[in-house]
Amino acid sequence: MYAGSFDPITSGHLDVVARSRHLFDRIVVGIGFNPDKEALFPVEERVEMATTLIHELVASDPNAASVSVERYSGLTVDFAKKAGASALVRGIRNVTDLATETQLAITNRQVADIETVFIVTGESYAFTSSSLIRQIAALGGDLDRLDSIIPPLVIERLKILQADPSGLLRAMANDANME
Predict the structure, then answer these.
(1) Is 130 annotated as catalytic?
(2) Which domain, by its residues, includes 106?
C-alpha cells in the first residue's frame, strides 16, 4: 500500500509507484485525508487524477504489478490491514523524510504489526513536494515551468484553480500575503 493525501499527485509520487511495481505483486494507492493540511483538491478529484495517471503508468509497463487507487478515511494502518497489504510503501526524498518516516514506520509496526518499505525517489524529484507545488500555484507561479515535476493533467487542474478569483488558491495567497 502506498498511502498519502496526494494533493496534488506529483511525478515523484508516480516514480515511487513505478518502482514499487517491481517489488510487489499488487499495489494499492490509498488516498486519504491529512488533518494537518487543508486540502486543495477534493478527495474525489484527487482519486480521479491519480486513477487516470496510474492507468497511463500501468499501460506503459504492463508486465509489472497491477495498481489500484482507493479512497480511505481513518488510520492508514487500518486501511492497509483491511486491504490485505503486506507492507506500507513510503517515498524518501531526503534525510528529513527519513527521520520522520522512520518514526512513523516504527509506530506502525508497534501499533499494527505492518512493515514499511522505503523507496528513495529519483534524483529529479528529490526537492518536489505537494506542499511546495500548492504554494507556487497559490502565489501565482508559472505552472508550465513545473512540467518536469508534475504531470500535465495536474498542471491543467491547478491552472483552473489559479483562474478562480474566489477559490481556495486565492485564499491561500491572501493568507501568505498577510504574514
Answers:
(1) yes
(2) 2-126
- Known catalytic residue at 13: yes
- Which ranges of the chain would DSSP assign to H, the alpha helix? 11-20, 43-60, 76-83, 95-112, 130-138, 152-163, 168-178
- Residue 93: active-site member: yes
* Residue 24: CATH number of its domain: 3.40.50.620
Q: What is the pLDDT of residue 178?
A: 44
The C-alpha torsion from 125 through 119 and 110 to 104, rounded to 10°, is -10
Residue 70 lies in a domain: yes
Average pLDDT for consecutive 10-residue bins of the chain (179 residues)? 96 96 97 87 97 97 96 94 95 92 95 95 89 93 95 97 78 56
**Residue 151 located in a structural domain:** no
- Specify if 158 maps to a domain: no
| CA 82 – CA 103 distance, rounded (Å) | 23
Look up 22 and say whether it is catalytic: no
Beta strands at 115-120 and 87-92: parallel, antiparallel or unpaired: parallel
Task: Specify the pTM.
Answer: 0.91
